[in-house]
Amino acid sequence: MQEIAIIGVGQTPIAEHWDKSIREVAGEALIAALRDAGRDTVDAIFVGNMLSGILANQENLGTLVADWAGLRGVEAVKVEAACASGAAAVRMGMLAVASGAMQCVIAMGVEKMSETPMSETTAALATAADADYEADEGISFVGLNALIMRRYLYEYKWQHTDFGPFSINAHANAMHNPYARLHETITQEDYKRAKMVADPINLLDASPTGDGAAAVVMVPANTLRGNTNRVVTIAGSAAATDSIAVHDRRDPLWLSAAAESARKAYQQAGLTPADIDIFELHDAFSIMSALSLEACGFAERGQGPRLGLDGEIFLSGSIPIATQGGLKARGHPVGATGVYQIVEVVQQLRGEAGKNQLANAKIGMAQNIGGSGSNIVTHILRSR
Amino acid sequence: MQEIAIIGVGQTPIAEHWDKSIREVAGEALIAALRDAGRDTVDAIFVGNMLSGILANQENLGTLVADWAGLRGVEAVKVEAACASGAAAVRMGMLAVASGAMQCVIAMGVEKMSETPMSETTAALATAADADYEADEGISFVGLNALIMRRYLYEYKWQHTDFGPFSINAHANAMHNPYARLHETITQEDYKRAKMVADPINLLDASPTGDGAAAVVMVPANTLRGNTNRVVTIAGSAAATDSIAVHDRRDPLWLSAAAESARKAYQQAGLTPADIDIFELHDAFSIMSALSLEACGFAERGQGPRLGLDGEIFLSGSIPIATQGGLKARGHPVGATGVYQIVEVVQQLRGEAGKNQLANAKIGMAQNIGGSGSNIVTHILRSR
Predict the structure, then answer these.
(1) What is the spatial distance between Cα B102 and Cα B88, in angstroms, rounded to a whole number?
(2) pLDDT tens digits for B129-149?
(3) Chain A residue closest to B238 (CA)?
(4) Do residue A75 and residue B100 have CB atoms under 8 angstroms apart?
(5) Which residues of A touch B75 (CB under 8 A)?
(6) Is the pLDDT of residue A337 over 90?
(7) Of A60, A96, A241, which is closest to B128 when you measure between CB atoms?
(8) What is the 3-state secondary structure (H, E, C) of A230-255?
(9) In this predicted model, what pLDDT tens digit does every residue of B279-326 receive, in sequence order?
(10) Closest-CA residue of chain B to A68
(11) Contacts of B125 in chain A (CB under 8 A)
(12) Among candidates B53, B66, B81 on the partner chain, residue whose Cβ is nearest the Cβ of A127
């Protein structure tokens, strides 16, 4: 497959954008990415989104975004893979360029979650689970993650407080990210005392939803001329699924789709976990940080929390995660999250990550998780 | 771009499948297509669907279908482009194979529309329109098409009855299609007397919704060995958009996205309208048949109904349409329709269209329309 380059990125702050409809939030990120790439049009737009139909009464979202952003006529489509919709859209866009049928595309993610009552949003998020055998039984999405975390604590003998560093790190890094939803540092004491949401998941284990959009512009790498300092290429890209229902898994504590998509991405890139300088993982809940680190080869099974306790996940550590705040503090506008992750890796590889900049970041990984680990997309990016 | 071949097709009857959930309907078509292709697995599944989130509380549909069909683990994603979701999924699958990243994929469409009250389904379908500036004003999807048809009758001086042949042809052809929703012939008198839905669209201008799924298996054409009699290749594939709201168009009677996507597909295939032996067009409403025929170069502007009145659209005519019943009588399970169209073209090109078989059909076109002409995908297929 020919090599694909990311030549522009854009994002909106994640917030409650009461003054903007979904088309406006999307358009803002799309236009920012085009401007960053120095382009004024594209061959196609791939819009990652999970909930526009349910929360905004709007399907045909690709068309709406193309129309609003001044690109009426351009091919456009919506891509959905639950909370992994964003990375799935990037992957579709990448494959479309690699096919030779397109020369320049935008892949983006957008979600608008503030306009509906929280109970409606919670029900909408449960559509990522098995409607007949999970959601219809009354369990919410945080409920499913709570069952997983409870089992993990029991099985591997950790204390809940051992997960604190994941959230503390995310909040600390978000302080310097102007696009982040939350700008407040937290302490281990705050983490310990946070209100319970679904035992053992408390408020500081869980990521906040929000309104936001992020976008990337992609072209074939071999078409680039001149100064390519700011260009980042896609060295690996893969996706895999698992059973949609958690109860159907042989081992609910092993993210097989994370392991499989990471394995393929490492193989494509010719790399191992030791080569990864930054890992934007899907910390929708702190338990997911541990499971992702284990599935992707950064920790032994059951030992994910150790990387937090040892400080290895901090900006100064061996495998920095959530470098701009992660889902936990940057925010989790579900269908957009996967693109935010990729934008943040690009920023690090370009050396444009501001106060959160890592020294010598050359290779970064982004992993976007849909459902309770049921649909996972992994990308490895490389600076030129 | 390398040439892609369709090596297997499958479909379910379109009906009210009260005994089957959406996963079961999807699984039936997927497994039928795999069997037809003689394969037992694929690298990825692309599921075209518009309404599962709203009508079945189920997003993450790609994962659900992979899991249910016995392909747990395989990459899977949902593709949405309103009523053009089916063809959009085929196009995404085709591009993925053409990229070189995949060797064999399934693209399919599925929709389950019978389980919800008709008022809810009508509201759900309106999510294909502009939520803020069309649907929120109270207009339904059939209402938008009625405005277009009314304008057409006024502008080009046709009588409503002049559209009768479109529906009569579709119903006649559906009689011999065991997968069709409706099996009843209709006369010009029936058409004239049908109950009004949204003036001037009456019940026999409008296609019925339903539950159904259709699927195709695709591989790179150059990997095929041995007898390739039943293989059909994709000679052209393109998509385009228009404004999402009808009122934003310079000319609401011209399907610019149909014209543009057809132009690109003709160019890729090196063909003109005169080369097309069969055209599965998107007759969701009879007015759409006229507009598609005009936009794709089969009739002058404003002269589409003439092809019906002259019998050119019949199986014996110069440009047969709706050869297995079309949306009008085969049925319109929205996100699945585009794949049904492609399956039917494949059947004709293989010589497996039963009593509706055209003599010497070598080249067929399928055109799938999302929204009120706002997102359109056109494919040209060729027999080997």
Answers:
(1) 18
(2) 999 999 999 999 999 999 999
(3) A75
(4) no
(5) 238-241
(6) yes
(7) A60
(8) CCEEEEEEEEEECCCCHHHCCCCCCC
(9) 999 999 999 999 999 999 999 999 999 999 999 999 999 999 999 999
(10) B243
(11) none
(12) B53
- pLDDT of amino acid B226: 85
Whether the per-residue pLDDT at A384 is higher than 90: the answer is no
∠ CA B327-B330-B331, nearest 5°, is 55
- Convert the pLDDT of each residue in B253-274 to its tens digit: 999 999 999 999 999 999 999 9
Q: Residue A153 phi/psi, 5° resolution?
A: -60, -40
Q: Give the rounded percent of residues in chain B with a pLDDT score beyond 70.
A: 100
> Which residue in B60, B77, B79 is closest to A128 by CB distance?
B60
Contacts of A94 in chain B (CB under 8 A): 99
**pLDDT confidence of residue B174:** 98
Name the catalytic one among A171, A282, A332, A379: A332
Q: Does the pLDDT of residue B373 top 90, yes or no?
A: yes
Handedness of CA B290, B293, B294, B298 (dihedral sign): negative
Average the pLDDT over A114-123 and give the result: 93
pLDDT at A287: 98
Please state, as a whole number, how many other Cβ atoms lie within 10 Å of the Cβ of residue B229: 9
**Cβ pairs bridging A and B (under 8 Å):** 215
As given in the structure block, the two tokens for residue A198 are: 């679904």
Q: How many CA atoms lie within 13 A of A209 on its CB side?
A: 22
Nearest alpha carbon to residue B5 among B129, B93, B131: B93
**Is residue A104 annotated as part of the catalytic site, yes or no?**
no
Contacts of B79 in chain A (CB under 8 A): 77-80
Report whether A277 contacts A313 (CB < 8 A).
no
Residues in a beta bridge with A363: A382
For chain A, what percent of residues have pLDDT higher than 70?
Answer: 100
Sequence-ordered list of residues with C-beta below 8 angstroms from that of B131, at least 6 positions apart, any chain: A56, A57, A58
Q: Which residues in chain B are contacts of A81 at CB distance < 8 A?
A: 60, 62-63, 76-78
- Chain A residue with CA closest to B260: the answer is A73
* pLDDT at position A58 over 90: yes
* pLDDT tens track for B169-178: 999 999 999 9
Inter-chain residue contact A92 with B88, CB threshold 8 Å: no
Are B72 and A242 an interchain contact pair (Cβ–Cβ within 8 Å)?
yes
Distance from CA of A48 to the nearest CA of B (A): 10
Distances (CA, A) of A131 to A120, A285, B59, B65, B122: 15, 21, 9, 13, 22
Catalytic one of A83, A282, A296, A379? A83
**Can you give the pTM of this predicted structure?**
0.98
Tell me how far apart the alpha carbons of residues A369 and A377 are, in angstroms, rounded to a whole number.
Answer: 7
